From TrEMBL:
Gene coding for it: hspa12b
Phylogenetic lineage: Eukaryota, Metazoa, Chordata, Craniata, Vertebrata
Keywords annotated in UniProt: ATP-binding, Nucleotide-binding
Example GO molecular function: ATP binding
Official protein name in the record: Heat shock 70 kDa protein 12B-like
Gene3D superfamilies: 3.30.420.40
Recorded family membership: Belongs to the heat shock protein 70 family.
Residue segments, region Disordered: 610-631
Species of the source: Salarias fasciatus (Jewelled blenny)
SUPFAM superfamilies noted in UniProt: Actin-like ATPase domain (SSF53067)
One Pfam short name: HSP70
Ranges of compositional bias, category Gly residues: 617-627
């Protein structure tokens, strides 16, 4: 049992010297709730906060969207004057045999002095051509986006490890990549624009997986600030878009001739439609659909309804998915190599012959894309000479002998120096990833909110895979129509541009988590547990009660707000800091319940209070306005956007209060 000796004030909240905040608040409808007190942690130290205090609207004449993918990234843009035309980025260099795509590999190369060297094909190829001795000093990063998803305590200090083992702050790695895109996009936009463009005329959009949590989204925003994409003083110049949501924005406009409908077509890419099913008209009426973004790193699912007549989108179920992207197939291939040649050998080969390893992954990538369920013959993957040679030196025997010894009957050796992967072997590489994807879509389709949905859009690079297409069609083809847009790998990018042009197109979203703060309520014997009892000035309080702002899977419309009022504790207090808690379920009562964790803080920077009208300044610590208990700071939180936003106002003076929300300091 804890004891406090400060008293709660009616109709206000205040911060004590011990750092606790007691308070009362307005509910979402704006009414005053019965007396409650808020728990409060010590003020935070860090200053990298997401500040979304309203500023003057920036006039945008261009929208540039960046799709920062796990395996490949790209940008596209559109001039607001001519928003029908979406310009895809120009290929700046390179390309791989057997791989046609307008995105570049997400690879970054830093010099031994940790300065930017190159990005994309250029980075990969330069690194590839370095002398192995020299390469050990360079910092090469690929597939680094996965780390952001897998790190549970992401902060500004989280590090990434380059191939050579050196560690760099992840925020810097992302900022280097974004800065590269900034330079390229700006140049291309300026080349295409007839007028002189100022930096602030550009609205930037960065896509992130819908399943990313607030810290990861804020991380991307901070990286964009660091990269100089936008200034933190103009936060609304940058939008964080959700990948499947962006795809959905694009998909809802698709016409029959722009899609492949798996239910009416054989399973190959690039064929013509017979047009026997009017996708258009039935889709517009059918108006509820699932979008599955099957990327390299994640599979991300969103369910939308098109609202008539405006054509806006309403999310029907919270975003779901997980790390089941196509790199799972690459990892399975690596695991297979380890099984045949030994894990220690593969690790040593990767470290000692990085260039040859890159060659091998490129060779596999091209073959992976031709894998198809209908294929009878084996797929050949050339083993680099360096692999064969290194194995011989390392193990004293040939790779052929290793294969024989491994009893891997599904992988054969071709005398031309190639691994021959039988259809069975390819299946084994794809199945674990594909099974996970299908399982997730099936689980989503079984939810009451989603049941009866008749359309499933498969988008993202992996959606091009006939292996995945066949598996999804087999599992779900009887339940719904499976639609694959042409240019399936670019749907997210195009949709992200459309989102930047009109972010209000998604009108209603579902909350991914329950959010709230800890408060004190009057203690009720029999209802509240004794270990939550707190006695203060002879009154009994129950501590740690979770005051919900929003509940998981709750529908929240854009612009819908949750309001709470707070009053500073002391005269001259300059800051109120409030802890935010979250939970994946809604059946929680206390902030100490299992599954509830502190996930962020709200900071209200209090301006100097104005002296009361007509009174001479009383001096001394800014206690004007009749004392701190009367000073009401109203915080307004919005949960309907892709990011959580907070604004605040000093009620008495009507002045806005600098309010920020931070999820990266935990
Ligand atoms: N025809 C194909 N068959 C199999 N896999 C494919 C095919 N085409 C593309 N892929 C895979 O799709 C992935 C790239 O897709 P995409 O560009 O959508 O991912 P990303 O945006 O980089 O990743 P994420 O969105 O998860 O961060 C790569 O792993 C690639 O191997
Ligand atoms: Mg992607």
């Amino acid at each position: 049992m804890k004891h406090f000796n400060a008293s709660c004030l009616e109709r206000s909240a205040f911060q004590t010297d011990s750092g606790h905040l007691f308070g009362f608040y307005h509910n979402a409808a704006g009414g005053m709730n019965p007396q409650r007190c808020l728990d409060q942690a010590e003020p935070g130290e860090r200053k990298h906060t997401l500040d979304l205090t309203p500023k003057m609207a920036c006039p945008f004449s261009v929208v540039v969207a960046i799709d920062f993918g796990t395996t490949s990234s790209g940008y596209a843009f559109s001039f607001t004057q001519d928003s029908e035309a979406i310009h895809m980025m120009k290929r700046w260099e390179g390309g791989d045999p057997g791989v046609a795509n307008q995105k570049s590999p997400t690879c970054l190369l830093l010099t031994p002095e940790v300065r930017f060297h190159s990005f994309g094909f250029a980075a990969r190829d330069f690194y590839h051509d370095l002398d192995p001795e020299e390469a050990r000093h360079w910092l090469y990063f690929d597939k680094f986006k996965m780390k952001i998803h897998s790190t549970s305590d992401l902060t500004m200090e989280t590090e990434l490890e380059a191939v050579n083992g050196r560690r760099v702050r992840a925020i810097e790695v992302f900022a280097h990549a974004l800065h590269f895109f900034r330079e390229h996009a700006l140049k291309e936009v300026k080349d295409q624009s007839s007028s002189v463009l100022e930096g602030e005329e550009i609205r930037w959009v960065i896509t992130v997986p819908a399943v990313w949590r607030q810290p990861a989204k804020q991380f991307m925003r901070e990286a964009a600030y660091l990269a100089g994409l936008v200034s933190p003083d103009c936060p609304e110049q940058l939008l964080i878009a959700l990948e499947p949501e962006a795809a959905s924005i694009y998909c809802r406009k698709l016409r029959l001739h722009q899609v492949i409908d798996l239910s009416v077509q054989p399973l190959t890419n690039g064929f013509d439609l017979d047009g026997s099913r009017p996708f258009d008209s039935s889709f517009r009426q059918g108006d509820r659909y699932v979008v599955a973004d099957c990327g390299g790193g994640t599979v991300d699912l969103t369910v939308h309804q098109i609202e008539q007549p405006q054509g806006t989108l309403k999310e029907l179920y919270k975003a779901s998915g997980g790390p089941y992207g196509a790199v799972g197939v690459d990892l399975a291939f690596e695991a297979m190599l380890c099984q045949i040649f030994g894990e220690d050998f593969i690790q040593s080969f990767k470290a000692k012959r990085p260039a040859a390893w890159v060659d091998l992954t490129i060779a596999f990538e091209a073959r992976k894309r031709t894998a198809s369920p209908g294929r009878a013959n084996a797929l050949n993957i050339s083993l680099p000479f360096s692999f064969i040679d290194y194995y011989k030196r390392h193990r004293g025997q040939s790779v052929e002998a290793a294969l024989r010894r491994s009893n891997m009957n599904i992988v054969k050796w071709s005398s031309q120096g190639m691994l021959r992967l039988t259809q069975e072997a390819m299946n084994e590489l794809f199945q674990p990833t594909i099974i996970n994807i299908v399982k997730h879509i099936e689980e989503l389709m079984a939810k009451p909110e989603v049941r009866g949905v008749r359309f499933l859009f498969l988008v993202g690079g992996f959606a091009e895979s006939p292996m995945l297409q066949r598996a999804v069609q087999k599992a779900l083809g009887r339940t719904c129509r499976i639609i694959i847009p042409h240019d399936v790998g670019l749907t997210i990018l195009k949709g992200a541009v459309l989102f930047g042009l009109d972010p209000t197109v998604v009108r209603v979203r579902r909350c991914p988590l329950t959010y709230g703060v800890g408060v004190l309520n009057r203690f009720v014997e029999g209802r509240h547990p004794r270990d939550k009892l707190l006695v203060k000035d002879g009154r009994e309080w129950c501590t740690d009660i979770l005051d919900r702002f929003v509940s998981v899977d709750q529908s929240v419309a854009l612009g819908e707000a949750v309001r709470r009022s707070y009053t500073p504790a002391r005269l001259g207090q300059r800051k109120i800091i409030i802890n935010i808690y979250c939970s994946a379920t809604d059946d929680v009562t206390y902030i100490s319940d299992p599954g509830v964790r502190k996930c962020g803080t709200i900071t209200l920077d209090l301006p100097e209070p104005l002296p009361p009208a007509g009174a001479a300044a009383r001096g001394g610590g800014g206690g004007g306005g009749g004392g701190p208990e009367r000073r009401e700071i109203r915080a307004t939180m919005q949960f309907g956007d892709t990011e959580i936003k907070v604004t605040a106002v000093d009620i008495m003076s009507g002045r806005s209060v600098r309010a920020s929300i931070d999820f990266l300091s935990n």
